[in-house]
Every structure is written in structure tokens, then in C-alpha cells.
Amino acid sequence: MASTSCNERAASLLESCLHGAAWPPELLRGLAGDDCSEALFRVVAEGLADRFEPALCDIYAALFAEAIAPGESAPLVERYRRVRIPRAVEGRPRRIFVLSRVTLGADVAVTSVILDAAKRRFPDADIYLAGQRKNWELFAADPRIGHLPIGYRRGTLPERLAAWPELRAALAGPDSIVIDPDSRLTQLGLLPVCPEERYYFFESRAYGGCSDDALPELTRRWAEQTFGIPDAKAYVAPLIDASEPESATITVSLGVGENHAKRIPDPFEEELLKLLAQLGAALWIDRGAGGEEAARVARAITRSGAKVQTWDGSFAGFASMIARSKLYVGYDSAGQHVAAACGTPLITVFAGFSCARMFSRWRPTGPGGIDVIKADHRNPALILGQVRRILTR
Fold first, then answer.
1. What is the pLDDT of residue 1?
2. Which positions of the chain have pLDDT values less than 70?
3. Strands 95-99 and 176-180, bridge-based pairing
């Protein structure tokens, strides 16, 4: 965790960026050092990206290009300005590499739409998802989607850039194209990984301008513009885990991706489980990757007194359970996007968004019944009342 000093300096830099003021070079240099890298990305990079403001993309490019290549950032910025312009794919590439967004929810809401369009536009091409195995596992049952293993570590700036040489080498082959859906593997399009003529960049933070459209819809429009496929859709295709139950009537996730602003204060989680258990259906909850989330889940189950079964396997395995559920309930997280893509009815409690457009972009959309509780007040009793009213429908 970054120190208070790092967080304060990062907040100061973000404020300068948001107000269009010149940012002090020494402030950026200090934050780009190993001790403050975490604050630079969590506070500044996410603070700029989460607002989905087109003008902030230029500020992000200038700021982080300088952090990556101090004193030599101009070529990175100039290239970024060129590749951000959408254009149609030409020719018939033999291999298509789609870069993972790193986070699971984004790979469902955004990357999967691009995978769907690529499969349909190029039925004879080999298509690979480049990224971590846990992300590819969401599509492992799809024979069209291969895996190009590329690691990404959320650490210091050098650690975050460590995958760049490996990625460039893997994408160097001819007769291929690279699709970048605003991936952290390229630091949101800043790092060149192949010749520009083979690179197609979806600047998701700016595409759609000031509209309130959700990311799956914006990605669909970009895919139509780029691939000529008008109706690409989000999807998942996880392998069925032998340890999964045959059916899970209600699935629940209390994961917040280490962003505690997405949580509703106690006793919301235990009362939510108690309420869902009253429906008399089999209730399964994901324990996450362990640590703080697993401890919260265990505490909520104990305090609720409800009969709840826990899932300790991969997220892909839990995604398979969500797909076969009658109802999914959770915070704004990967699970809501899986449920939306699969047509599973869902209730999502959406809190911790920095602005209205962030809520609009990340809200789940899909063919099933979707109820989004906009929890800007974060009052447990009021939100539980909203959940109860939805359930009684």
C-alpha cells in the first residue's frame, strides 16, 4: 500500500490534470519511483480513465508517456495520436491477437465482444487471447480462442512494463494483426507492440464521447466500424469444472477488486445473505482469491445464520455456475458482466463510482433481466429494501 505521502502527491497530480493545469515534472518523477508507483496508477491513471472524458485521454498520454520514457516521450505521444483513429481491417490475416484487459470483468464486457466479431469476420484465422491464464479460462471451451500466455504484475512501473519485450516478440510474426481494447499490457495503447499498420486500438475511454452508452454497446459499434460485423455480443465459454454442482439456483459474489468504495457498510452483506436464504433456493457464494474477501464472506455467512455453500475454485468455474443460475447477486464486479452476457437475471449493487459517466459505462447490459441499484447513498437498510422489492416481483 502506498504511503500517505504518496497518496497525497498522487491526488495533487490528479487535481492538476483534471483542472488542465501544468503538472510539475518533479512531482511525476517522484511518483514514478518504485515507492510511489502504486499510487501513481491507482490514484492518477485510474482517476483519469474512470471519468471516460475524451480530453483526459490526451493528458493521460502525455503524462504516462513521460513516466515511461522521461525526456523522450514525444514519439510515444505522436504514435498514440495516430493509432487512436478507428479504421477498418483490411486483408485476411492468418493470426489475430487480441490483448486482454487484465481485469476479468473488462474482458467479458469489452474484450469478448471483439473476440466474437473477430471470429465471425475471419472464420479461418487463428485467434489468440494474449494475457493471463485466468482470463483465457473464461473462453477455454471455445475452440476458436487460443491462449498466448503473457503475465502482468501490478507493482512498480518497471514491473508493469516487464511484459512489454515478451509481448513485442510474441506479436512480431507476419500475416497477423493485433487488437488492443485499451489494455494495461500496452498501458492503454502507449507501448508499441507491432507495426502500426497491423495494430488496431479501441480507445474505450473516449469512444462514445459524452453519451451514456455502456461499454458493451460502444465496443459493438467499434467492432462494426473495424470488422464490419454489426451485432457482436459479449459472451463467455468456460470449461465446466468437475467439482461444480449440477445446478446453482442463486450465485452471489461480494468481491470488489480491492476497491472498498464499492462495498456497502455492515450489516449489509450478512443481511443480504439472510434475505436470499429466505427464498428457499440453493445459495452459493464465491470466496474469491482468499485474503480480505474470503474473511468477509466467512463473517457474513456466520452472522447471517443462513445455509450457504462456498465456491473456492477458479473464477471461470464460478462463471460457469453463474451461467446456469436462476439469479445472480453482487457488487459491481466481474460476476455481473458474466451474468449479463449469459442472460442470467441479476441484481447488482453499484457503488463507489467517481462520476455519472463511469456508472453509465460499466453498468451491466444484456438479454436477461437486469436490475442495477445505484447505491450512491450507501445506506444498508435502504439498499436492502430495494433488493427486497426486486425479489418480490
1. 46
2. 1-3, 242-243, 247
3. parallel
